[in-house]
Write a structure and sequence with these properties.
Layout lengths: L6 E7 L3 E7 L4 E6 L13 H6 L3 E7 L10 H8 L7 E7 L1 H8 L7 E5 L32 E4 L4 H11 L7 E4 L7 H7 L3 H9 L14 H10 L8 H10 L3 H14 L10 H8 L2 H4 L3 H17 L3 H14 L4 H22 L1
Parallel strand pairs: 3-4, 3-5, 5-6, 6-7, 7-8
Antiparallel strand pairs: 1-2, 2-4
Helix pairs in contact: 7-8, 8-9, 12-13, 13-14
Length: 350
């Protein structure tokens, strides 16, 4: 599809969240939501796909591990309602973003597409100690449209969230099952190469089941790897497939376990920026003051730099810039350390 001019405008912004409109003049606006740990940015999950395929996009994101608890339903509704007038509206999200797609659809009568929706600070699945400020979904208005929800019914957390948090509000749902995909239904469909056409059908209101082979399901591969961990030679093919398919923190843990258990080398996965950012988001819960985590990370880096451990110090500053991209101090340190590390490596390899 031929690209159109995009007019981008921040509709609302605080230190805790941002709501950004990307308008190409379409009759349909798809509101997408950041997943856990994705951080604050002008565009994110689903933005490029929406614009490429002829839809306006409103991207909604929140800071760190806050799980949208600083963005009330009324604030969201009042922010977007004027730009949604006369539009066909769809809310679309993954995991925490899937929860948000359901929760914030209440007063804008949106059609909902939610992959593996969950919120781990919600009373239905309270795995995180965090104050839950939102009203229950069943306490709000509901859309006139039947939500489309994609889950693995064997994922206990997702299944519990559907039955306890969503079903009381929506007695009827279009539920699409991706068995043995775990919480990674979206990733399994994407890896199979079927995601684009599947999404466009859902956005058009065409709800069909989809077949995804087990080789594209991270949960299936992880379970197989774990089951064969102590059987020589059997776990390795599954771990290698996982490293290619899903270079996540779980895959990294399994690879490390395989090395220790079998005393055999295997290439470790390199985590993506989003995976690293999600990992660093746990710092938000570990420190009471916002500046504490940054100070500890950068001061440790400075001590290592003084001790001549330049490469380790550089790694810490690089982590800091992922977590706090606005930090000039970390950015300047990276610029000063990079030539030192590179020249040192050249000397060692000479």
């Amino acid at each position: 599809m031929k690209s159109k001019n995009v007019i981008s405008k921040i509709l609302a912004e605080t230190e805790d969240y941002r709501i950004t409109l990307h308008d190409i003049g379409s009759k349909t606006t798809i509101i997408t939501f950041g997943y856990w740990g994705s951080g604050i940015s002008q565009k994110g999950f689903g933005t490029d796909f929406c614009l490429k395929n002829g839809f306006n996009n409103i991207y909604v994101c929140c800071k760190g591990a806050q799980r949208f608890q600083h963005l009330s339903l009324d604030t969201f509704t009042n922010t977007v309602k004027d730009v949604l007038k006369s539009k066909d509206v769809i809310t679309y999200g993954l995991s925490l973003g899937g929860y948000a797609a359901i929760y914030y659809a209440a007063h804008i009568n949106a059609r909902i597409v939610a992959f593996s929706p969950r919120n781990l600070s919600h009373p239905a699945t309270p795995r995180i100690k965090q104050t839950f400020t939102h009203t229950q979904i069943y306490e709000n208005a509901v859309t006139r449209h039947t939500p489309i929800i994609i889950i693995d019914p064997f994922d206990q957390t997702d299944f519990t969230f559907i039955t306890k948090a969503i079903a009381p509000a929506y007695k009827k749902m279009h539920v699409i099952h991706i068995d043995n995909a775990g919480h990674s239904c979206f990733g399994a469909i994407k890896s199979s190469g079927k995601l684009g056409p599947f999404l466009l059908n859902l956005f058009a209101g065409k709800v069909d089941q989809i077949d995804v082979e087990n080789k594209y399901k991270a949960e299936f591969l992880a379970q197989k790897a774990q089951a064969y961990m102590h059987t020589e030679g059997h776990a390795e093919p599954y771990i290698r497939a996982l490293i290619q398919l899903d270079p996540s923190r779980r895959t990294l843990r399994l690879a490390k376990e395989y090395i220790v258990t079998n005393s055999k080398a295997i290439k470790l996965p390199t985590l993506s920026i989003n995976e690293t950012r999600a990992c660093l988001a746990t710092l938000d819960n570990a420190f009471t003051e916002k500046s504490m985590a940054f100070d500890i990370l950068t001061k440790t880096a400075a001590v290592l730099e003084d001790a001549g451990q330049f490469e380790t110090a550089l790694s810490l500053y690089q982590l800091a810039i992922i977590k706090w991209p606005e930090s000039q101090r970390a950015r300047q340190k990276i610029e000063s350390l990079m030539p030192i590390v590179n020249l040192t490596k050249q000397q060692e390899n000479a």
